[in-house]
Structures are given as structure tokens and as C-alpha cells.
């Protein structure tokens, strides 16, 4: 079987790689991460012009094609550069929800400007008590004719600070944790009753906690069928989990490369670290973990493509295996670098932070191990 990328995928990989190497050096990335918005509007417009914001979407929606393999090609390169622009929050999370649940009119209103780079979106699905249970939804929407009223609290909403419109999972019927009775709505962030507390996470990303206090919305803001949103939410979060797995592979590749380079120049007892057999073995283990991570990532992406986006067992297998690899590679990178590895000026410590955050994003390593075993 031929596992090589297609010509289009190779062009996409080269395009993203060229941007990261030429326009996204370490100092530039740090300046962007520390800016008021946490990302570059100029870069975001460039992503739109290059067509990267269309990657996850179907051709019928004006997208690149919607292939999971296409997505991991781009995400691996983004992982190498520790990208802070909200590609994950906008195109993968919010974009997938609109693509799968939105009407033609809603896609024209929300999805088209997203792909053009003119609209910032966020998907608010997690709540303080929900952990990784996507059906644990207490945020409520009461529908009364052509209107509805939204109340509740959503936590750690990626891109929640910059989002102009927020997609929200709400309970329209049933009890907390029921799979039935969960719906999707979209809210203009400037609507009265919407309150946001924004913050930077440890890995340089931006997020927000969002409260909805008697937020009045037209019933036309519902996405998809009332009470039947759980499958769309699960598919969206699994797609995001696959994406961060690919990002982790890219970050691990850079961590390994930088660790090997450092071991060749850092001297201890008047010889370079690379001459110590014990450290050679540790770096060899890092290489093996990375190779296994690449293999299972490609397996999960191909499985997702062959099953029309529904591949929970394959995603859990990848998230479990790659989560373990990310921990080993990240920790070993820091150990071999020593104290300098955790300084803010050196990038290897930031790769470690992002790899650590990914281990707990969209289901922890332990959560996905248990889900794989139960499936």
C-alpha cells in the first residue's frame, strides 16, 4: 500500500513549511503570543489568501475537500512552528459544527466569512463540571415560539476572547448527561447578557470562560435539529483530537531535532553529551516513540476518511498512543537540556508546554485509553 502524500498534499505541506521557516521564526512567534490579541491578524488574512482556512471543509461548502489526511498534513507543520493563530478553534471546532449542522443560509452567514478570514468564531461546549463527558450539558436554552433564552456557563473556550460569534451547546430538554435533548445555537458575542473572562493558557494559546445570563436569541439561531446535536459534537471533538495529535507529532519532531543538536554541542566532563551511551539510548527511544506516533496518526486519519468522519476507536487509539509519546519526548527533551530547557527564552520548553497541554485536550491520554478499551 502506498502511504505517500498526493501531489496536492505535498504542495500544501511545502506551503505551510515555507511559511513557518521564513515568516514564523521563534522571536516573531513569541512577540505574537505576547500581543494583546494573542495572534496576528496579518497572518490570519494570509492563511485565508493561501486557502488554508478551507482545508477541513467539503467542496460543496467551498472548501479544499475535507480530508482528514489533508488536515494532519497542515497540523504537523503548524505544530513545528508552535502556531498560536486560532486555526484549531476557528476552522476545526467551529467550522466543523457549522459544516455538519448548519443550513445553507447559516453556512453563507458563518462559514463563508470564516474561510475568507473575515470572521472569528469559537465553539463553547465544555462546562466546569463536564470533564470529558460531552453529554454533560447544563447550559440551557428555553425555546418559546420564535424566540429562546440562553443561560449557563462555558469554560476554556478556545478563541473565546477574539470570537465575534460563539457556537454553544445547550440543553433544550432532558436531564444533565442525557444524550438526547442537546442542541446547538450561535450567539453574537456582543449580545446583552454575554460576559467573558479571557486569559492566556500555559502553552501560549488564548481562551475564555463565558457566561450567558438570560440572553435572548431568535429561534433561527439554532443549528440543526433541536435536541439531536450530540453526534455532531462528538464528531467535531474527535476531529479536533486528531488535529492536536498531528500538531503533537510536529512538535515532537522539532523537540527531538533540537535535543539531538544540543547534545552535539553541549559539553560535560570535556566531551559532548552525544558521546554518552545512556543519552544516545534515551534519544533513540524518543525517535522510536515519534515513529510510532506518526504511524498511528496516519492510521487514524485514513480510518476517519474511510468512515465519513466517524472513527472514535481509531481517534482514541491515536490520542492514547500519541499522548504517551508526547509525555516521553517532552520530558526527555527537558532532561537532556537541563535547567536551560525550562527558560522562557529557549523554545524547547515551550514545545514541552504545548505537548503537555495536548495530552489533556479533547480527552486525556487515560480517557482515550479507557474509551478505546470499552469500544
Number of helices: 11
Helix content: 40-55%
Termini gap = 27 Å
CATH homologous superfamily identity of the largest domain: Butyryl-CoA Dehydrogenase, subunit A, domain 3
Describe this structure in words.
The protein is α+β, with helices and mostly antiparallel strands and 375 residues long. The chain has three domains: 7-120, Orthogonal Bundle (Butyryl-Coa Dehydrogenase, subunit A, domain 1); 122-229, Butyryl-CoA Dehydrogenase, subunit A, domain 2; 231-374, Butyryl-CoA Dehydrogenase, subunit A, domain 3 (Up-down Bundle). It has eleven helices and ten strands. The protein has helices at residues 7-23, 26-33, 41-49, 68-81, 87-101, 104-116, 230-265, 277-306, 312-337, 347-359, 365-374, and strands at 121-124, 140-144, 147-158, 165-171, 182-188, 194-200, 206-218, 222-223, 267-268, 271-272. Strands 1-4-5-8 form a four-stranded mixed sheet. Strands 2-3-7-6 form a four-stranded antiparallel sheet, with no helix packed on it. Strands 9-10 form a two-stranded antiparallel sheet. Helix 4 packs across helix 7 (230-265). The model has no long low-confidence stretch (mean pLDDT 95).
Give a summary of the structure in a few sentences:
By secondary structure, the chain is α+β, with helices and mostly antiparallel strands.
